[in-house]
Amino acid sequence: MFFPVEIEVNPILVEAIRTLSAVVNVSTGLAHPLDESKAKELFKALHKHGVPLRSSDVYSLATGKSWPDRHAKKLAEMAEKVGNGGLVQIKHSCNWGEPTVKRIIAELGQTEQSNARGASYIAPFLWCRYALLPQK
């Protein structure tokens, strides 16, 4: 008997594709050289940080963010190439990938920490922040 296996997508990859989809023109895919460079930089940074770059995951996430099928396939192929250690040439480096991945990792780390500690962790921070405001 066959039982489907659900593979969890790395939340860093989920947020990375969401972020990329917000800064590129998804209707044209990676046709613009700067959009292509951003995607390459992003995938290189994700690979550097050990994030798996499976083409099926990238394709699903991209189509979920309104990428047309052919552009989502090209994005997924690029991700898998980088994820397998393949070389890509970045023609217009904009130093976007690494800072973006670091920010995503930091934000997700803070979210996990906040969720693990609960509201009692957040409340003292908010209290201190507001307690230091000048009183009228």
Major sheet: size, sense and barrel closure? none
User: What is the general shape?
Assistant: globular
Report the end-to-end length measured between terminal Cα atoms.
Answer: 71 Å
User: What's the CATH class, please?
Assistant: Mainly Alpha
As a whole number of angstroms, the C-alpha radius of gyration is: 19 Å
Quickly count the helices: 6
How large a portion of the residues is in β-strands, by DSSP E? under 5%
Question: In percent, how helical is the residue content?
Answer: 55-70%
Parts with pLDDT < 50 across at least 5 consecutive residues: 112-136
Q: Gist?
A:
The chain is 65% helix and 0% strand. With 136 residues, the protein is mostly helical.
Please, could you describe this protein's structure?
The chain is an all-alpha fold and 136 residues long. The longest helix is centred in the C-terminal third of the chain and has 21 residues, at 97-117. The chain has one domain (11-131): AhpD-like. It has helices at 11-23, 33-48, 55-64, 69-83, 97-117, 119-131. α2 (33-48) crosses α4 and α3 runs antiparallel to α4.
